[in-house]
# Entry
Amino acid sequence: MSEQEKRVVGDNDVVSLEYTLTVDGEVVDSSEGHGPIEFIQGRGNIIPGLEKEVYGMSVGESKAVSVAPAEGYGEEDPNAFVEIPKSEFPPEIPVEVGTPLQLRDHQGQVFDAVIAEVRDDTALLNFNHPLAGKTLNFQIKVVGIREATPEELDHGHVHH
# Structure
């Protein structure tokens, strides 16, 4: 048995992970066709509930993981809804439920939102992450483990 086969995921390892994410019975994300994701284990590069489940896995190992909202994208925050007058929307943006928006604040920071509700003169925008409040069901497979380089550890992310 080679060293790579015996190794299990621990802190500061670079993990290559194939995954499929299913929410409410629907596949919402997958590494299929894109190749595995790579991240440094134990550094918060991926959501906490998934990171916790990857510890101790070895190359070639697969499992199903269910992540509750508290360890995923959080619960939906009722304070993350904002009502905006319809008159403030540019004419090219459809004021319809489900329309995704990107808004900038005065400092230039970009915020993603989606129109949650259309009322008589206003639209209710939801600034929560689209997966907030959702249970995340992953099918994962570890396809590689290696030590992170000192530079990767210093920068906090994987270099290619």
In short: Residues 48-54 form the longest helix (7 residues). The radius of gyration is 20 Å.
